[in-house]
Amino acid sequence: MTHLLPTLPLHLEIKERNDSMRVLAIGDNVMDIYLDSKRMFPGGNAINFSVMATRIPEITSGYLGNFGNDNLAKLMKSTLKTFNVNIDHCRNLKGESGYSLVKVVNGDRKFLASNRGGVLNQGIKISDNKDYINAMDLIHLSVNGNGKEIINYISKPKIVYDYSDFSNENEITLTIDNVDLACFSVGNVSKDRVVERARQLQRMGNYHTILLFTMGKQGAMVFARNRCYYQPAQLTNHIKDTMGAGDSFITYFSTGLLRENWDISSIPNILKSASLFSAKQLKIDGSLGVSFNIPDLQLKELCKER
């Protein structure tokens, strides 16, 4: 397997800066294996957030999770180090790294199969890292990263929770009352249905829970303190890949709120900037613009296992 050092597009270049806000993503790391191109792309909600946050000025970013003892883990760790994401508190475990098999159809990705997170299923050790976690300004959790098992350890930072879609009702019920920003990806859902669901979720959460719905080509909607905000999608030509577009929107929007001390009057401006930030994501391959070759033999074995 060949490790290609990433050439970063202009808008992804890492710049020196005085960091002032600390964010941490806890959860999954997954290698997205594209069958068409026979290339692997580092990803997963937590990885995407932690790396994308490094593109934003005045942010120090970290990732907390499990790494396997295979070559996929080595590639994942080298990628995070390239982007200056802190991984000092992660565990290295015996087992298989998380991966998913992906095919791109008309610029949109289709997930075909996965190993359901690999070593993530051994549990992320939170108890030894409570002080580290609670020294952060913002924590990112997700339904794909054992978020419901972690949330009760968090007492001080703002909490961003990516619930993916509407299908995880039990997890929403268990956690949303403790969440500052609840995020949903609903590209195929009508605006009317989003409004209806938002009203239900507002009754479930606390008064201060902000709801963010990323809706693909339909744009994005935010509900905060009985107000609704809508942001049209940014028109983008020559879309390469939609992987990570929702994560990039969540990353910019949540850190924008953090920068503005969670002032809801700043939401319209943050939404507009988040839309522009997310549109750039559509012009790169994979979630991070970083990829690796995968030998035919290994690809055949992975496909056979699934």
TrEMBL record:
Ranges for domain Carbohydrate kinase PfkB: 38-261
Domain of life of the native organism: Bacteria
Keyword presence, Transferase: yes
GO molecular-function terms, A-Z: kinase activity
Gene3D superfamilies: 3.40.1190.20
Keywords noted in UniProt: Kinase, Transferase
Keyword S-adenosyl-L-methionine annotated: no
Name assigned to this protein: Carbohydrate kinase PfkB domain-containing protein
The species this protein was found in: Limosilactobacillus reuteri (Lactobacillus reuteri)
Organism placement in taxonomy: Bacteria, Bacillati, Bacillota, Bacilli, Lactobacillales
